[in-house]
Specification:
By secondary structure, the chain is of the alpha+beta class. Among the domains are: about 75-185, Beta-Lactamase (2-Layer Sandwich), CATH 3.30.450.20; about 350-490, Immunoglobulin-like, CATH 2.60.40.680; about 490-580, Immunoglobulin-like, CATH 2.60.40; about 590-670, Immunoglobulin-like (Sandwich). Helices cover about 25% and strands about 40% of the residues. The chain contains 10 helices and 38 strands. Strands 12, 14, 16, 17, 19, 20 and 22 form a 7-stranded mixed β-sheet that branches. It has a 5-stranded antiparallel β-sheet with strand order 2-1-5-4-3, with helices on both faces. It has a 5-stranded antiparallel β-sheet with strand order 7-6-10-9-8. The longest helix is centred in the N-terminal third of the chain and has 58 residues, at about 15-75.
Length: about 675
């Protein structure tokens, strides 16, 4: 009875035991395809979900613990007394000790108006208004409560911070506020992975604007690849909860999941979670052994069945060799399917020469009583840089530049450094030795200045002769954009008793810059209920509420927003600001070629032209051949074509808001036309 099904199957097929066993092998291999697919699809998802939840719990726990630590410092009597008297000297002595004792990276204290009076690390960066410039400060004022959030640093926008803020009171009177912060750098990322995640898991914190902030991955080649992928222009950090199965250069297999971290005004960054699939190789081995085991089990049972019937079965069947070969070829195919489809992290090809010079901070409101620091920042678009020329201008009647500091500069050799305080011109040229510099957020130099009395707003500009030269042997100027800085000053108290209003846009902080987003956020001080009373001179009927407020415009252009509120005296006060919005790509872009059909070795002259009637075009065009990278050109460029073929030449132009348009032209190169 036990072998009745074998007998019936043998009679049905009229074949040998080896053929029957091979049929079983084929059936098993079909099953292994589905099992392998399940391993490939389901095991990573189940593994990463566990790590994902642990990451979420870990972030919340870190914020909770940081809130408690900050509250402890804010309740120290000496700290409270020093905040009340704005004694920055005493605070500078106490806070470093307290932060080290509690394992806090950064601490900051502001007065009752929100003006920073002490930072524990960047001690000379004071005078900025946290209640207006910082998302956490704005949320604190709006809610009247403590706030915990993940944001970017106000001092260095490349840095992702886990931060908490709370008001400080004495005798039930608000005297200021204190923030406590973890810096999401490599050290913190390693601590986080070890404390909260399963063994073998890794994390990479990033900001949406500048990319990698810190990672627990220590192998240099893998870390460099992760840094290359965490770029704002690439897709991997654009969508929340995306997953990808990858293999790093060290051979480890991970499934990577992206998690946006919560911010009080929208997510400013996130974390890539690397869940190592430690058991996937073992599961695949077991998976491949199953059909082989079934083959031999069936074979032995068939042999036993035939032996009972008096038939002698020889193991030396030529067909067996064929069956074994087919089995191993099938296994090899499955392994190639599984591991061949694992995406390897490779250094991404950057789409164009893309360097940007910017001033940090780009905008904001500062107390004119304090000296300020503005840093000149270089963001390299992937190309190596070996020379920089800076040409800056400012109004000497509005600002007094006290010093120019190069201690933090990426440049090793300055061949020119001139400052004319009468004309407000700053000229600097520097060299970076081979292999040059690649990366974002590099400091070229720091400017320290103080506003002249009575100045409300000033602008520091890059002149047109500023350059960033690539380390390509040609000295190609790869500067795509230079971002100026507009700083506003206030010397008066911003408490509710004052009959003045200070208006600021967190989403569009620089009134001289063009932005490609139509939703405008408005914040103001003092933090009394206010309303948007007019847009472009047209009266708005809105109810009053605490800042910040948001307003979406329908059309591109320069828009003027007026916010009104009623002071405690009953007097209605208002202020207006302008924002520049351009969401439309350049409307005209033309690429002309001297010839479109040439012989090998021919030279073609290309002429680029374009127009953007709103924000205007950026200073250079970009050209690429087929799928190579874009390189910068002027209006004319000559390109040789030594080999036969059909080439696609693509021209790209950016406007000053970052929108771009492409146009292409085909060039046919044949020996006989």
């Amino acid at each position: 009875m036990k072998a009745s099904w074998l007998k019936q199957f043998g009679n049905l097929t009229k074949t040998t035991p080896f053929h029957l066993a091979f049929v079983a092998l084929l059936v098993s291999l079909c099953g292994v395809v589905f099992i392998t697919y399940g391993i490939y699809q389901e095991y990573p998802k189940r593994a990463v979900q566990k790590t994902f939840e642990k990451t979420r719990v870990g972030i919340n726990q870190e914020l909770s613990e940081l809130m408690e630590k900050g509250n402890e410092v804010a309740s120290i009597p000496k700290v409270v007394s020093a905040i009340a008297s704005e004694d920055s000297g005493t605070l500078s002595e106490i806070l470093p000790i307290e932060k080290e004792k509690r394992g806090i990276n950064l601490m900051k204290v502001v007065n009752k108006d929100g003006v920073v009076i002490v930072r524990t690390v960047t001690t000379n960066a004071v005078g900025d208004n946290t209640f207006i410039n910082s998302p956490i400060g704005r949320k604190m004022v709006q809610s009247g409560q403590s706030v915990a959030s993940v944001e970017t640093s106000a001092v260095d926008a490349r840095q992702l911070i886990i931060s908490t803020g709370r008001f400080v009171y004495r005798n039930n009177v608000r005297i200021g506020a204190l923030t406590a912060t973890y810096l999401a750098d490599d050290i913190y990322a390693t601590h986080f992975a070890n404390a909260y995640l399963p063994e073998g898991s890794e994390v990479a914190f990033y900001t949406k604007e500048y990319g990698l902030a810190g990672t627990s991955i220590t192998i240099p080649v893998s870390k460099k690849l992760i840094e290359g992928y965490l770029k704002p222009e690439l897709d991997i950090i654009q969508n929340d909860n995306t997953e990808k199965l990858i293999r790093l250069p060290d051979g480890k297999i991970f499934i990577v999941r992206n998690m946006f971290l919560p911010g009080v005004e929208g997510s400013a960054g996130g974390v890539l979670i690397f869940t190592q699939l430690k058991y996937i190789n073992l599961l695949v081995i077991i998976d491949l052994l199953i059909p082989l085991a079934i083959f031999f089990i069936v074979l032995f049972k068939l042999r036993r069945h035939y032996l009972r019937r008096g038939k002698k079965i020889s193991w030396c069947c030529p067909s067996l060799d064929i069956f074994v070969i087919i089995y191993f070829l099938s296994c090899l195919t499955l392994l190639l399917f599984l591991y061949g489809n694992l995406p390897k992290f490779k250094m991404p090809v950057y789409p164009l020469y893309n360097s940007v010079l910017r001033l940090q901070p780009e905008g904001g409101i500062f107390d004119s009583r304090f000296p300020q620091r503005i840093s000149v920042i270089l963001d390299s678009g992937g190309e190596a840089i070996n020379a920089i020329r800076l040409s800056l201008s400012y109004n000497p009647s509005e600002l007094k530049v006290q010093s120019i500091d190069m201690d933090r500069s990426i440049c090793e050799n300055f061949i020119l450094s001139e400052h004319n305080s009468k004309t407000g011109q700053i000229e600097m040229e520097c060299i970076i030795p081979n292999p040059g510099f690649k990366g974002n957020g590099a400091i070229v130099g720091d400017l320290f200045f103080k506003a002249e009395p009575g100045i409300k707003q000033t602008v520091i500009r890059f002149n047109d002769d500023s350059q960033v030269l690539a380390n390509d042997g040609l000295g190609t100027n790869v500067l795509r954009l230079a971002v100026n800085s507009t700083i506003r000053f206030n010397a008066d108290s911003l408490t509710a008793g004052k009959e003045s209003l200070l208006l600021f846009s967190p989403s569009h902080p620089n009134p001289e810059r063009w932005y490609s987003k139509k939703t405008v956020a408005l914040s103001w001080a003092p933090s009394l209920p206010g309303r948007i009373s007019a847009v472009d001179g047209v009266l708005e009927k809105t109810s009053a509420s605490l800042p910040p407020l948001q307003k979406k415009v329908l059309e591109d252009g320069t828009h003027h927003f007026t916010v009104s509120m009623r002071a405690e005296s009953g007097k209605e006060i208002s202020e207006s600001i302008a924002v520049n919005i351009d969401t439309t790509p350049p409307e005209t872009l033309t690429l002309s070629a001297s010839e479109t059909k040439i012989k090998p070795g021919g030279l073609v002259r290309f002429t680029a032209s374009g127009k953007d009637s709103m924000s205007g075009l950026q200073r250079v065009f970009y050209l690429k051949i087929d799928d190579e990278i874009f390189f910068p050109i002027g209006q004319d460029v000559y390109i040789p074509f030594p080999q036969s073929g059909v080439y696609t030449i693509t021209l790209r132009a950016y406007d000053k808001a970052g929108n771009y348009s492409d146009t292409s032209k085909k060039i046919t190169v044949r020996r006989y036309q």
